[in-house]
Amino acid sequence: MSNDVPAWRLKSSLSGIEWPAVPDVRGSLVYSLFRQMETEQWLAPRDIAARQSVQLEQIVRHAALTVPWYREHWPPGLLARLSEGGALSADAFASLPCLGRRDLQAQFAQLQSSAVPSEHGPLADSSSSGSTGTPVRFRKTYLNQLIWEALTLRDHAWHRRDLQQTLCIIRRGEADEADNWGLPTRMFHTGAAYLCPVSIDVEAQLAWLVERAPGYLLTYPSLALQLASLARQQGVRLPGLREVRTFGEPLDAQVRDACREAWGVPVNDTYSSEEFGYLAIGCPHSGHYHVQSESVLLEVLDDDGNACAPGTIGRVVVTGLLNFAMPLIRYELGDMAEAGPPCPCGRGLPVLTRILGRTRSMLVTADAKRYWPTFGFRDSATGAGSGGPRIIQRQVVQSALDQVQIRYVSASALSPDEESMLTAQVAQRLPPGVNVTAQRVAGIARSANGKFEEFVAAIATAPEAP
Q1: What is the pLDDT of residue 194?
Q2: What is the pTM of this model?
Q3: I want to staple 335 with a disulfide (CB 3.0 to 4.6 A). Which of 53, 232, 316, 440 is the partner?
Q4: Closest to 331 measured CA to CA, from 404, 381, 279
Q5: 8 A C-beta contact, residue 11 and residue 190
Q6: Using CA atoms, how far apart are residues 116 and 325, in angstroms rounded to an integer?
Q7: Which pLDDT tens digit goes with each residue over 40-81?
Q8: Band of pLDDT at residue 437, cut at 50, 70 and 90
């Protein structure tokens, strides 16, 4: 496969110099990292794994020597071997205890390194409300920001985006506009970027999009589905739109289908977290996700802590390879994902077939079994396309071990027959003995970070994110 990049137009930072363009120092660093990553992504999986293992040993040794929490919780023999310059074996790494979200919440000071290399740049503290609304704090270096910017360029390059188009963003935040796409593309000429708050009405968001006429839309999958469904219902086209980009929530085929039917465009997704930045980027050829091995080691583990085979779903455990300010080693995000086989695109980066979301959003039955619910909502169950009322938004909530309720927002109430079709559609995807009801509501609020969950386990026995 070719490792060429789109013909983006470089911007010069020097007065009076237009060609050849001379980017500023930061832009040059990011561009250099990006080009290196674009070349090495074509290495064989074993070669990428070998290079990653070298960096893994560096960060684990640094954590062992400078982070109090790991010195308390890791085996003394391993700590001694690493302090003496010994190698880190795969078995030794796999035996390390996982770090949970609660550990990060409670041990912020104990998880900081006492000796951050000065050449990694200034330190910055960040926080995330997370899907549970419980904040976690973490610390990063300037280098981590540069890596995030380089991986953003990789995402743009993989999908061959025209940076001179208009970018519209709908997410949490205040309304804003800029004459460029932001820091990651600072070294290129770009079109304008506009931000619309996720908190305003969906109809107003759609009108805002029509007014801005974007080439690209970046938003949450659930909101992309709402916007595309409303656009299709109202006959609203976005003729200049080339792609919908999504983040922050699990993406399913329904979102892809809705955007293609409404606007004739593809949907491309990224998997990220506040703690690590990019974890995986959607492959432009297969539609699966490539783990960003230059930045993270991502494990998909079964209940016994073993690596999942391709096609198997497990919990996501991540080790950041480049954050020497607060090394997060074997950090359990609380997500579930499906491991994948090597990608036919030729990239040697590991593959995730699906990202399923938070473990806490699993259905729990009376016999203590847990299921990952998927519903595959069909328009035929809500009268769409036949003159009937259209569901604008829906959420399934487990309120008891044997009780699930479908909360839905629609322009007008569903008829009893339509509600029966809707509940039957959900019931057939649940274990026997779970009663399903439906209730029309005025609206369904998003979480504090602007995300939306299709399924919520609102019972005391529901598992929480670690």
Answers
A1: 98
A2: 0.83
A3: 316
A4: 279
A5: no
A6: 5
A7: 999 999 999 999 999 999 999 999 999 999 999 999 999 999
A8: very high
| Residues linked to residue 217 through DSSP beta bridges, in sequence order | 168, 244
Neighbours of 352 (CB within 10 A): 22
Cis amide linkage into residue 20, ω under 30° from 0: yes
Residues in the chain: 466
Per-residue pLDDT tens digits for 394-420: 888 998 988 999 998 887 888 898 889
User: Which residues, listed in sequence order, are joined to residue 371 by a DSSP beta bridge?
Assistant: 363
Give 302 or 394, the one with higher predicted confidence: 302
The residue among 349, 303, 305 whose CA lies nearest residue 93 is 305
Residues in Cβ contact with 168 at an 8 Å cutoff, skipping those fewer than 6 apart: 193, 194, 196, 208, 209, 212, 214, 216, 217, 218
By C-alpha distance, which of 46, 49, 33, 35 is closest to 3? 35
CA atoms of 445 and 265, how far apart (whole Å): 28
Instruction: Evaluate whether 406 touches 439 at the Cβ level (below 8 Å).
Output: yes
Contact status, residue 35 vs residue 41, Cβ threshold 8 Å: no
